[in-house]
Amino acid sequence: MLLRFQVTNHASIRDEQELSLIAGDDRGARAQRPVPGAASLKAVPVAAIYGSNASGKSNLVDAMSWMRRAVLDSFRRWDPSGGVPRRPFRLRPDPQTHPSTYELDFVVDGIRYEFGFTVDDACVLEEWLACFPEGKRRALYTRTGSDPASLSFGRSLTGRRKTISDLLRPNSLYLSVAAAQNHELLGRLHRWFRNGMRTATDGNFAARLDYTVGLLRRRDTGSSTLVDLLRFADLGVEHLEFSRHDEKYLAEYKRVTTALSEALGRPVKNDGPEYRVTVQHRTEEGVFDLELNEESSGTRTWIGMLGPVLGALAAGSVLAVDELDARLHPYLADALVGMFQNADLNRHGAQLVFTTHEASLLGPHARTELSRDQVWFTEKPLETLATRLFPITDFYVRDSPDSRDNLERRYLSGRYGALPHLDDELLRRVAADTAEGGAGEAGEAVGTEVGETAGVA
To answer: Where is the ATPase AAA-type core domain (predicted)?
Structure first.
């Protein structure tokens, strides 16, 4: 269970921003869960983040993903002398002098934990881990510098603490080192970052597709559920078939990624899909197969999402999705959110955090009702171009919280902000330029150049 995520100085996020999944209202109809050690608090199953293009929605998901990768990779994969591969806010004169901080509250095995760290370009500056076994904070360890001598331990943390400390590097997290040394408690927390918190973005489609195929290969209840959801989406899909790519394909993929790495001057992951997927369609003429790349982008998106969604629901884990509505019909996006909201479907406390532009999810005709404590917005003030994250509940201090209103209408009318500011004067100038032929002549020149380059008459 994820309770809170906080980040400072990541990509477009300059100042400290916090996403909370603590429920503001007790709504028993949704799949909310009690917070251990705090009987009066519950965690929401879904958090939706709205905002205009380039407002920083994706960077919030990216910050969650970056923190996860730092925990998983800082000891095993980061170059010992390569510093910290972070992404600080760069729209200020001295970005390298400002550290970045990541922190979250989460629950593992019925106990709440607070974990965070601060890094700069060179090393880990701070790291801390605390638990709340009876509702009171107990420090497990605190790190105040990059060297092992900066570590101090609470009495609650047992195990080979000094052995782990001796292996610590300036640019590796203590949690990462401890997991590699099979520390019992810290290993469990490390596994939560690996299995209990996942992201879905355009960049990891291949891995998500392989995960979906993995469910099909099991030929069990999870496999049949996946097939049912394929048919539920009304895409005309009957089934998926899969086979491993041959050695020639894998060798060619590796050659291309190696060439890209050399051209870009940085590593490019060789993480193409392990399996070749074909999609079966049934018509009155029989069953026919199409290659996955012959399918619509919406069909591919739905197929790539099913594995992570079913995996999260089965394990009670957290899934963060960037642009949930991209290439999906609003009904399908609505249905996917509903799987996490529905207490009958979401029996293990899974959570969905997603960014979206789909305002209809807030409207009265949505199948899934999102409450006010589940809706967040991002904005970028023109003065700083730094992302600001805020909840919709900020707007209800003066309004009656008991009235059920149309959140979609209020959002699109600009009541909450987080909308693009469109300058109609610029459109009038474009219209004037077009009328005078300037844009047409430019378009003709570009079209001629493209045609000549492509060999088109």
So the answer is: 46-362
pTM score of the predicted model? 0.86
**In the chain, % of residues over pLDDT 90:** 55
CA gap 34, 264 in Å, rounded = 48
Question: What does the alpha-carbon distance between residue 108 and residue 201 come to, in Å, rounded to a whole number?
Answer: 25
Distance of CA 101 to CAs 12, 104, 129, Å?
14, 10, 14
**Which comes out higher in pLDDT, residue 415 or 449?**
415
- Domains of the chain, by residue range, sit at 2-196, 200-370
Residue 398 confidence (pLDDT): 46
Helix (H) or strand (E) holding 231: helix 221-232
Residue whose tokens read 């290659």: 291
The CATH code of the domain at 200-370 is 3.40.50
317, 196 contact by CB (below 8 A): yes
Least confident of 76-90, 98-112, 268-282, 398-412: 398-412
- In order, the DSSP letters of 256-274 are HHHHHHHHHTS-------S
Alpha-carbon torsion angle 358, 362, 365, 366, nearest 10: 70
Q: 160 CB contacts (<8 Å, ≥6 apart)?
A: 181, 183
Q: Which of 88, 92, 43 is nearest to 66 (CA)?
A: 88
Contact indicator for 43, 35 with CB cutoff of 8 Å: yes
β-strands 275-283, 388-391: how paired?
A: unpaired
Asked if residues 416 and 377 have their Cβ atoms less than 8 Å apart, the reply is yes
Q: What DSSP letter does each residue of 122-177 carry, written as one string?
A: SSEEEEEEEEETTSS-EEEEEE-SSSGGGEEE-TT--S-HHHHHHT--TTS-HHHH
Within 13 A of 439's CA, how many CA atoms are on the CB side? 8
Whether residue 221 has pLDDT greater than 70: no
Q: How far apart are CA 237 and CA 229, in angstroms?
A: 10
Could you tell me if 113 and 130 are in contact, meaning their C-beta atoms sit under 8 angstroms apart?
A: yes
pLDDT of residue 433: 79
Strands 318-321 and 197-200: what pairing? Answer: parallel
Q: How many angstroms separate the CA atoms of 17 and 375, rounded?
A: 15
Residues 6+ apart with CB under 8 A from 358: 324, 325, 330, 333
C-alpha span between 41 and 1 (Å, rounded): 13
